[in-house]
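User: Please fill in residues for this 209-position structure.
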Protein backbone atom coordinates (compact mmCIF):
# COMPACT_ATOMS: atom_id res chain seq x y z
CA UNK A 1 0.00 0.00 0.00
CA UNK A 2 1.18 3.52 -0.79
CA UNK A 3 2.62 5.01 2.41
CA UNK A 4 0.66 8.25 2.01
CA UNK A 5 -2.60 6.29 1.81
CA UNK A 6 -1.54 4.16 4.78
CA UNK A 7 -0.80 7.28 6.82
CA UNK A 8 -4.15 8.79 5.90
CA UNK A 9 -5.86 5.55 6.95
CA UNK A 10 -4.14 5.58 10.34
CA UNK A 11 -5.37 9.10 11.02
CA UNK A 12 -8.88 8.35 9.77
CA UNK A 13 -9.05 5.21 11.90
CA UNK A 14 -8.67 7.34 15.04
CA UNK A 15 -11.76 9.30 14.05
CA UNK A 16 -13.74 6.16 13.31
CA UNK A 17 -12.76 4.55 16.62
CA UNK A 18 -13.80 7.70 18.50
CA UNK A 19 -17.12 7.65 16.64
CA UNK A 20 -17.68 4.01 17.56
CA UNK A 21 -16.95 4.77 21.21
CA UNK A 22 -19.57 7.52 21.19
CA UNK A 23 -22.06 4.91 19.98
CA UNK A 24 -21.33 2.31 22.68
CA UNK A 25 -19.21 0.24 20.27
CA UNK A 26 -15.53 -0.56 20.59
CA UNK A 27 -13.00 -0.05 17.81
CA UNK A 28 -9.48 -1.37 17.28
CA UNK A 29 -6.89 -0.69 14.59
CA UNK A 30 -4.65 -3.25 12.88
CA UNK A 31 -1.84 -2.23 10.58
CA UNK A 32 -1.78 -5.58 8.76
CA UNK A 33 -3.94 -8.63 8.11
CA UNK A 34 -1.76 -10.58 10.52
CA UNK A 35 -2.35 -8.02 13.28
CA UNK A 36 -6.07 -8.12 12.52
CA UNK A 37 -6.15 -11.90 12.86
CA UNK A 38 -4.35 -11.74 16.21
CA UNK A 39 -6.78 -9.11 17.51
CA UNK A 40 -9.88 -11.03 16.39
CA UNK A 41 -8.61 -14.22 18.04
CA UNK A 42 -8.02 -12.20 21.21
CA UNK A 43 -11.65 -11.05 21.05
CA UNK A 44 -12.89 -14.62 20.52
CA UNK A 45 -11.73 -16.50 23.65
CA UNK A 46 -10.73 -20.14 23.41
CA UNK A 47 -13.64 -22.40 24.25
CA UNK A 48 -16.27 -19.95 23.03
CA UNK A 49 -18.83 -20.76 20.35
CA UNK A 50 -18.35 -18.71 17.22
CA UNK A 51 -19.94 -18.50 13.80
CA UNK A 52 -20.22 -16.10 10.89
CA UNK A 53 -22.09 -15.29 7.72
CA UNK A 54 -20.40 -15.33 4.33
CA UNK A 55 -17.62 -13.03 5.50
CA UNK A 56 -14.97 -12.62 2.80
CA UNK A 57 -12.89 -10.34 5.04
CA UNK A 58 -12.62 -13.12 7.65
CA UNK A 59 -11.29 -15.49 5.02
CA UNK A 60 -8.86 -12.92 3.71
CA UNK A 61 -7.14 -12.49 7.06
CA UNK A 62 -6.99 -16.25 7.65
CA UNK A 63 -9.63 -16.39 10.38
CA UNK A 64 -11.57 -19.39 9.06
CA UNK A 65 -8.45 -21.57 9.11
CA UNK A 66 -7.53 -20.28 12.58
CA UNK A 67 -10.99 -21.06 13.98
CA UNK A 68 -10.84 -24.59 12.59
CA UNK A 69 -7.98 -25.66 14.89
CA UNK A 70 -10.37 -26.99 17.56
CA UNK A 71 -9.62 -24.44 20.28
CA UNK A 72 -13.05 -22.86 19.79
CA UNK A 73 -16.47 -24.27 19.01
CA UNK A 74 -16.58 -23.05 15.41
CA UNK A 75 -20.00 -23.46 13.81
CA UNK A 76 -18.97 -23.48 10.14
CA UNK A 77 -22.15 -23.18 8.11
CA UNK A 78 -20.27 -24.13 4.93
CA UNK A 79 -19.49 -27.51 6.50
CA UNK A 80 -23.01 -28.18 7.82
CA UNK A 81 -25.60 -29.77 5.56
CA UNK A 82 -28.56 -28.18 7.36
CA UNK A 83 -27.95 -24.51 6.54
CA UNK A 84 -31.03 -23.33 8.43
CA UNK A 85 -29.85 -25.04 11.60
CA UNK A 86 -26.42 -23.48 11.18
CA UNK A 87 -27.94 -20.02 10.74
CA UNK A 88 -30.22 -20.43 13.76
CA UNK A 89 -27.26 -21.54 15.89
CA UNK A 90 -25.74 -18.11 15.34
CA UNK A 91 -28.35 -16.46 17.56
CA UNK A 92 -27.15 -18.33 20.63
CA UNK A 93 -23.43 -18.16 19.84
CA UNK A 94 -20.94 -16.42 22.07
CA UNK A 95 -19.50 -14.56 19.10
CA UNK A 96 -20.78 -13.70 15.63
CA UNK A 97 -18.11 -12.60 13.15
CA UNK A 98 -19.06 -10.29 10.31
CA UNK A 99 -17.83 -7.42 8.25
CA UNK A 100 -19.68 -4.34 7.04
CA UNK A 101 -20.72 -3.25 3.59
CA UNK A 102 -19.80 0.29 4.59
CA UNK A 103 -19.08 2.43 7.63
CA UNK A 104 -19.13 6.16 8.18
CA UNK A 105 -16.23 8.19 9.51
CA UNK A 106 -18.20 8.78 12.71
CA UNK A 107 -18.90 5.11 13.37
CA UNK A 108 -22.26 4.24 11.81
CA UNK A 109 -22.28 0.73 10.33
CA UNK A 110 -24.24 -0.17 7.19
CA UNK A 111 -25.12 -3.70 6.05
CA UNK A 112 -27.38 -5.08 3.32
CA UNK A 113 -28.63 -8.67 3.34
CA UNK A 114 -30.66 -11.06 1.24
CA UNK A 115 -31.66 -13.74 3.76
CA UNK A 116 -31.36 -11.47 6.83
CA UNK A 117 -29.40 -14.06 8.80
CA UNK A 118 -26.38 -11.75 8.96
CA UNK A 119 -28.13 -8.47 9.75
CA UNK A 120 -30.46 -10.10 12.27
CA UNK A 121 -27.52 -11.64 14.13
CA UNK A 122 -25.74 -8.30 14.19
CA UNK A 123 -28.85 -6.64 15.59
CA UNK A 124 -29.73 -9.20 18.28
CA UNK A 125 -28.87 -12.65 19.58
CA UNK A 126 -25.15 -13.45 19.80
CA UNK A 127 -23.48 -12.23 22.98
CA UNK A 128 -20.77 -10.45 21.02
CA UNK A 129 -20.34 -9.28 17.43
CA UNK A 130 -16.85 -8.85 16.01
CA UNK A 131 -16.58 -7.00 12.71
CA UNK A 132 -13.53 -7.02 10.44
CA UNK A 133 -13.55 -3.89 8.30
CA UNK A 134 -10.97 -2.82 5.74
CA UNK A 135 -10.34 0.90 5.49
CA UNK A 136 -11.62 0.74 1.90
CA UNK A 137 -15.14 0.62 3.35
CA UNK A 138 -14.97 3.88 5.30
CA UNK A 139 -17.21 6.61 3.85
CA UNK A 140 -17.65 10.29 4.77
CA UNK A 141 -21.30 10.06 5.82
CA UNK A 142 -24.38 7.84 5.91
CA UNK A 143 -25.56 8.77 2.42
CA UNK A 144 -22.24 7.80 0.85
CA UNK A 145 -22.12 4.63 2.98
CA UNK A 146 -25.53 3.54 1.71
CA UNK A 147 -24.47 4.32 -1.85
CA UNK A 148 -21.32 2.26 -1.40
CA UNK A 149 -23.30 -0.68 -0.03
CA UNK A 150 -25.72 -0.56 -2.95
CA UNK A 151 -23.37 0.33 -5.80
CA UNK A 152 -20.14 -1.43 -4.80
CA UNK A 153 -20.80 -4.27 -2.36
CA UNK A 154 -24.15 -5.46 -3.74
CA UNK A 155 -23.15 -5.67 -7.45
CA UNK A 156 -19.91 -7.49 -6.65
CA UNK A 157 -21.71 -9.98 -4.41
CA UNK A 158 -24.45 -10.50 -6.99
CA UNK A 159 -21.78 -11.26 -9.59
CA UNK A 160 -19.93 -13.52 -7.13
CA UNK A 161 -23.07 -15.57 -6.49
CA UNK A 162 -23.96 -15.72 -10.21
CA UNK A 163 -27.27 -13.93 -9.69
CA UNK A 164 -29.40 -12.43 -12.43
CA UNK A 165 -29.90 -8.90 -11.13
CA UNK A 166 -29.56 -5.61 -13.01
CA UNK A 167 -26.57 -4.66 -10.88
CA UNK A 168 -24.78 -7.90 -11.76
CA UNK A 169 -25.05 -6.89 -15.41
CA UNK A 170 -24.39 -3.13 -15.16
CA UNK A 171 -22.35 -2.78 -11.95
CA UNK A 172 -24.76 -0.21 -10.53
CA UNK A 173 -27.85 -0.41 -8.34
CA UNK A 174 -31.18 -0.23 -10.17
CA UNK A 175 -33.30 -0.36 -7.00
CA UNK A 176 -34.67 -3.58 -8.44
CA UNK A 177 -37.29 -6.03 -7.25
CA UNK A 178 -35.66 -8.94 -9.02
CA UNK A 179 -36.35 -12.40 -7.52
CA UNK A 180 -32.57 -12.65 -7.18
CA UNK A 181 -32.11 -9.38 -5.32
CA UNK A 182 -29.82 -9.50 -2.31
CA UNK A 183 -30.85 -6.01 -1.17
CA UNK A 184 -33.80 -7.20 0.92
CA UNK A 185 -32.91 -5.86 4.36
CA UNK A 186 -30.88 -2.78 5.24
CA UNK A 187 -29.38 -2.51 8.72
CA UNK A 188 -28.00 0.82 9.91
CA UNK A 189 -26.31 0.38 13.28
CA UNK A 190 -25.94 3.84 14.77
CA UNK A 191 -25.81 2.86 18.45
CA UNK A 192 -25.51 -0.25 20.63
CA UNK A 193 -27.72 -0.48 23.71
CA UNK A 194 -25.29 -3.03 25.10
CA UNK A 195 -21.91 -1.38 25.76
CA UNK A 196 -19.07 -3.12 23.97
CA UNK A 197 -21.22 -5.88 22.43
CA UNK A 198 -20.15 -4.77 18.96
CA UNK A 199 -16.42 -4.64 18.37
CA UNK A 200 -14.86 -3.43 15.12
CA UNK A 201 -11.36 -4.28 13.97
CA UNK A 202 -10.29 -1.73 11.37
CA UNK A 203 -7.59 -3.00 9.03
CA UNK A 204 -5.19 -0.80 7.08
CA UNK A 205 -5.87 -2.82 3.94
CA UNK A 206 -8.49 -3.35 1.27
CA UNK A 207 -10.70 -6.23 2.41
CA UNK A 208 -13.93 -7.68 1.08
CA UNK A 209 -16.25 -5.82 -1.23
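Assistant: Residues filled in for all 209 positions:
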Amino acid sequence: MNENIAKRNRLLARKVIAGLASRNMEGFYAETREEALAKVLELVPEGSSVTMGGCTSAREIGLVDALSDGSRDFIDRDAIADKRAAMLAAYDADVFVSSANAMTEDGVVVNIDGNANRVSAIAQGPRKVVMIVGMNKICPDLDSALKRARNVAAPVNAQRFGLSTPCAKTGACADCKSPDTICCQFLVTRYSHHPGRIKVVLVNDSLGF
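For context: The longest strand covers residues 128-134.
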